[in-house]
Amino acid sequence: METSGARHERSADERPISLGGSARPMLAADRDGFVDRHDLWGEAEHAAAAQIRRVIDERGIEMVRVAFADQHGTLRGKTLVGDGLWGGLRGGVRVPSSLVLKDTSGKSVYPVFSRDAGTGIEGLGGAGDVVLVPDPKTFRVLPWAPNTGWVLCDLHFPDGRPVAFSTRRIFREALADLAARGYGVTIGVEIEFHVFRALDEGLGDHHVAAPGRPGEAPGLGPVSRGAQLLREEDLDALDDLVQALSAGLLALDLPLRSLELEFGPSQLEMTLAPRPGLQAADDVVLARTAIRQICRRHGYVATFMSRPAGADTASAGWHLHQSLVDLESGENVVVDTSDPRVRAWYAAAIVAQSFLAIAR
């Protein structure tokens, strides 16, 4: 059987592109990067990384956004460019550890310069570094940003230890606990959100924020009157937006099933096909971020707040659908509610809570 190392060596075509090479030259420093030193990738990740090398060259990718979902579901990270591109993908990217110690306004809510930042976790004190380690399986080419890729990351300390606050890790641990009980989980989501038309042409001094003190909200206008659930005429009035969202989400290989007009004014809903545990959570993170970015580029502002100003008649929420599968038989264990195995739903509740840690 071929080892991941052997596959990786053969996939690294080190000829210059001008001489027919199919991938960027791999430097020795890249081979001995953070990922390799701490053995953080398996066969699937090495194979996906090899494919990323081909895509970067074939598609002319010049920048890659590396990001992680913080405790509030916000993506934070950096953009790799030029010589830092492949080195960062393979060697990790350092960011301040205080990024996992902030509230939604960007204010640090822990004593970040103390020994352990008040968390009891060695490595989070002193506002030191943590390392973003890309998961190559999540790589996407952004359809709306020219020559730009996108990849989700896990968090590790510089000595290779995982960061306990890493949301993807929290969910992985819950899935591993479920698997130890003999179960797998499939998750489908329906997500409601609001979209407003942007009235401001740009940012002014009154919009500028500080940690703990948000600036004034931008001027927004409604895009639908509301009180007409699933009314086709109102959705057709938003066809430019619906077309842009559909094209963008499908180009990211997200399992989009529908875009719907919800009951409230300026309220829409998106449904995604069921997928296995972590993949479903990653789908939600990518979809919500994509929706916000696509909307902004088309003159709209999207929000996943429960009840933003201007949406007083209907709150936005979401539905989280779960099914548990027996890993040996592939059988859905919760179809027959008289089956004693229905108690496995207790384990499912743990998984659901962990899913929300990454996709809230």
Description:
The chain has 360 residues and is of the alpha+beta class. The chain has two domains: 4-94 and 130-163, Ubiquitin-like (UB roll); 183-359, 2-Layer Sandwich (Creatine Kinase, Chain A, domain 2), CATH 3.30.590. The protein has helices spanning 4-11, 28-31, 34-37, 43-58, 84-91, 167-180, 232-236, 239-251, 277-297, 344-359; strands at residues 63-69, 75-81, 93-96, 129-134, 140-141, 148-156, 183-198, 220-221, 256-261, 267-276, 300-303, 318-326. Strands 1, 2, 3, 4, 5 and 6 form a six-stranded mixed sheet that branches. The protein is globular. Residues 1-29 have low confidence and may be disordered.
| Principal-axes shape call | globular
Q: What do we call the CATH homologous superfamily of the largest domain?
A: Glutamine synthetase/guanido kinase, catalytic domain
Q: Spell the H/E element sequence.
A: HHHHEEHEEEEHEEHHEEHEEH
Q: Please bin the fraction of helical residues.
A: 25-40%
Based on CA atoms alone, the radius of gyration comes out at 22 Å
Total helical segments: 10
Q: What is the CATH topology of the largest domain?
A: Creatine Kinase, Chain A, domain 2
What characterizes the major β-sheet?
6 strands, mixed
Number of structural units classed as domains: 2
β-strand amount: 15-25%
List low-confidence stretches.
1-29
